[in-house]
Design goal:
The protein is mainly beta. It folds into 2 domains: 2-27 and 111-143 and 211-283; 37-110 and 145-210, no CATH class. It is built from 5 helices and 16 strands. It has helices spanning 147-150, 153-166, 185-189, 194-203, 228-231; strands at residues 2-12, 15-25, 37-39, 52-55, 58-61, 67-70, 76-79, 90-92, 106-110, 115-125, 128-138, 141-143, 209-211, 214-225, 237-254, 274-283. The longest helix is centred in the middle third of the chain and has 14 residues, at 153-166.
């Protein structure tokens, strides 16, 4: 669904206001998909949007640094092995198993916005022109890069002094994953090691998803066009305009509580803000 509203109003005297507001809304749902046997965290699943995001809920950490998953029924499970991370669970659709009945994964939202908003305003007054453009995106979630490291920063800092005091050889306080020892040799030797599947669990956790709803200021333009009376005696120059323009000015409002730009996340380049100063001449060669 799309809609637009525009206006060109005379506010007072020579002050004019031109406005254009555009709105679009898109909702999609996969009606039918043959899910016979698939890994958990599917790309497509009936009844949900095509760009759905599925995630685990890392509820807390044990004193040893193991992740503790929280299920939909309120139960907890320590992710201290390949099996208990539930990363490799499968869904048997042929047997009637559904994601709604599966305890360890949650629908967290969709990657693509459902709503887009565009808002352009131009004010003119005796040769002056001021324009600003804003856009908004709503109804989606964003995954933050660097998932394997930043979520445990607080845990690391809290235990850093303890680790130094204990010494590496006698370490009992863990920060990211248990140290290699004879007791967990079989897990490290397996195809999925702590370093791979526990980090994968972080990457696919709710903690690394945040609301992508935001409004950004895309452009501000200020120009002045010399009046014709000043150019009346010139046979060569028919128009002169002086202007300045700024683009990619950044987010002016975001729903997430992390003060993050959903389109400029950690590990990615921030859209470059550019400033332009110009002088336009219109020449008459007739």
């Amino acid at each position: 669904m799309e809609a637009s509203l525009g206006t060109n109003l005379k506010i007072a005297g020579d002050l004019m206001w031109n406005m254009m507001l555009t709105f679009s809304y898109n909702k999609n749902k996969l009606v039918k998909y043959n899910v016979l046997a698939s890994a958990i965290r599917p790309t497509y699943y009936p009844g949900y949007p095509l760009s759905s995001r599925w995630a685990y809920n890392i509820h807390r950490y044990t004193d040893e640094g193991y992740q503790v998953l929280l299920g939909k029924d309120g139960t907890e499970e320590v992710a201290d092995s390949r099996t208990t991370t539930h990363l490799y669970d499968t869904l048997n659709g042929a047997a009637g198993e559904t994601l709604e009945d599966y305890n360890w994964i949650y629908w967290a939202g969709q990657d693509t916005p459902t709503t887009y908003l565009g808002f352009t305003n131009t004010f003119t007054y005796k040769g002056f022109s001021l324009t600003f453009k804003m856009t908004g995106k709503f109804g989606h979630v964003v995954q933050e890069p660097g998932a394997s490291s930043s979520i445990l920063d607080g845990y690391k800092l809290e235990n850093a002094k303890k680790i130094l005091d204990e010494g590496y050889a006698n370490q009992k306080t863990y920060t990211v994953m248990p140290l290699f020892n004879a007791d967990n040799y079989n897990v490290f030797a397996a195809n999925g090691t702590y370093n791979s599947y526990l980090n994968s669990l972080h990457v696919n956790s709710i903690a690394y998803l945040f609301k992508g709803d935001h409004i950004r200021l895309n452009e501000v333009y200020l120009g002045y066009e010399l009046p014709n009376r000043l150019l009346a005696k010139s046979k060569l120059v028919s128009g002169v305009k002086i202007y300045t323009q700024a683009k990619n000015l950044g987010v002016i409002w975001a729903l997430n509580d992390r003060h993050k730009d959903p389109e400029s996340r950690m590990g990615t380049f921030k859209p470059m803000t550019t400033f332009t100063f110009g002088l336009n001449f219109n020449f008459n060669f007739n």
